[in-house]
């Protein structure tokens, strides 16, 4: 197994550890969860850099890497919902959209018919990550310095609500754009091989 794939597996392993620490009642564990998430996120950047620089790209890696990313981000959103930091219905929309698109993309990779990752989808992923980092830092910081009333600024419920709503709408919209841009490729994935052959005659 190549090093990038090992790092991808590590990211998947770190995800449940992050969740358990974040949702625990212990403030110290919550602080550690921030470190675990940062490490997990760094493995995503590092394995991509190694794969591009040294050509360590495999079909298995192309299948597993985006799946590991969505497992990590979806787990973060679900944890935020369980902590009542964000609205559950928004998380449901984000998680369902990301899982469906990721499974589609991974299936296409296995069939050697990779779909195009749109610029809007890349922007969505970047904004999701920024929001997760922001909320995670704000939440842990607010708990760590309880009594300073940081909630009035960086963790205000109304601010979090509108930021999360923006992320939700953006995520849903990019999913629709993704399907539209790749519709021709998507259709070929589900056409039987015999039918494709007959149509090409």
UniProtKB/TrEMBL annotation:
InterPro entries: CDP-alcohol_PTase-I, CDP-OH_P_trans, CDP-OH_PTrfase_TM_dom, CDP_ALCOHOL_P_TRANSF_CS, Phosphatidylglycerol_P_synth. Pathway: Phospholipid metabolism; phosphatidylglycerol biosynthesis; phosphatidylglycerol from CDP-diacylglycerol: step 1/2. The chain crosses the membrane at residues 6-23, 71-104, 125-145, 160-180. PROSITE patterns: CDP_ALCOHOL_P_TRANSF. One of its GO terms (cellular component) is membrane. GO terms for molecular function: CDP-diacylglycerol-glycerol-3-phosphate 3-phosphatidyltransferase activity. The keyword Transferase applies. This is CDP-diacylglycerol--glycerol-3-phosphate 3-phosphatidyltransferase. It comes from Kryptobacter tengchongensis.
């Amino acid at each position: 197994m190549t090093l990038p794939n090992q790092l991808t597996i590590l990211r998947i392993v770190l995800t449940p550890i992050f969740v358990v620490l974040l949702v625990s009642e212990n403030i110290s564990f919550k602080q550690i969860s921030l470190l675990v998430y940062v490490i997990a996120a760094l493995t995503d950047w590092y394995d991509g850099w190694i794969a591009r620089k040294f050509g360590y790209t495999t079909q298995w890696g192309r299948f597993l890497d985006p799946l590991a990313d969505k497992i990590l981000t979806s787990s973060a959103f679900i944890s935020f919902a369980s902590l009542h930091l964000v609205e559950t219905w928004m998380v449901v929309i984000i998680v369902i959209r990301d899982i469906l698109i990721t499974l589609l993309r991974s299936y296409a990779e296995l069939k050697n018919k990779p779909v195009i990752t749109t610029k809007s989808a890349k922007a969505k992923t970047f904004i999701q990550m920024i929001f997760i980092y922001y909320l995670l830092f704000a939440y842990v910081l607010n708990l760590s310095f309880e009594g300073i009333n940081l909630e009035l600024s960086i963790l205000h419920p109304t601010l979090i609500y509108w930021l999360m709503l923006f992320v939700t709408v953006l995520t849903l919209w990019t999913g629709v754009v993704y399907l539209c841009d790749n519709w021709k490729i998507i259709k070929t994935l589900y056409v039987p091989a015999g039918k494709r052959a007959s149509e090409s005659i």
